[in-house]
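Task: sequence design from structure.
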């Protein structure tokens, strides 16, 4: 009887590292948006934190024609009501992103993940603003 208990314990202990590894490699969440084709953008991509949380990291990717994610830029430690320029283009080349899809991954303070936020796109002074707000709870 004792031997069975020991074997069961050893089996459980060998499964523990697999469980911890699976949690660490969890796929990131994304909010995917299409940049409107009529948006007046030319110069910069700016992330605006309009949420009530510190955003530890905001990663923005361009989804290419093959479905691959190409990083456009990252904002870190973005406080509420602050913004961060993540990319700048010369010669109005930002306009080439009109009609293209982007993916935004958000890591917020206190365990907040992408699913806790909304993303909207706007243009101000020929710049693309990626505005992040709190998701309204129902």
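Answer:
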């Amino acid at each position: 009887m004792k031997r069975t208990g020991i074997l069961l314990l050893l089996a459980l202990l060998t499964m523990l590292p697999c469980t911890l590894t699976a949690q660490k490699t969890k796929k990131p969440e994304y909010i995917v948006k299409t940049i409107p084709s009529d948006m007046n953008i030319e110069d910069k991509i700016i992330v605006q934190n309009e949420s009530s949380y510190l955003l530890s990291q905001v990663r923005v990717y361009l989804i290419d024609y093959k479905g691959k994610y190409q990083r456009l830029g990252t904002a870190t430690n973005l406080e509420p009501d602050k913004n961060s320029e993540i990319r700048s283009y010369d010669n109005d080349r930002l306009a080439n992103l009109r009609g293209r899809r982007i993916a935004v991954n958000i890591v917020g303070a206190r365990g907040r993940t992408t699913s806790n936020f909304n993303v909207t796109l706007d243009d101000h002074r020929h710049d693309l603003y990626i505005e992040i707000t709190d998701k309204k709870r129902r």
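Residues 61 and 106 are 12 Å apart (CA to CA).
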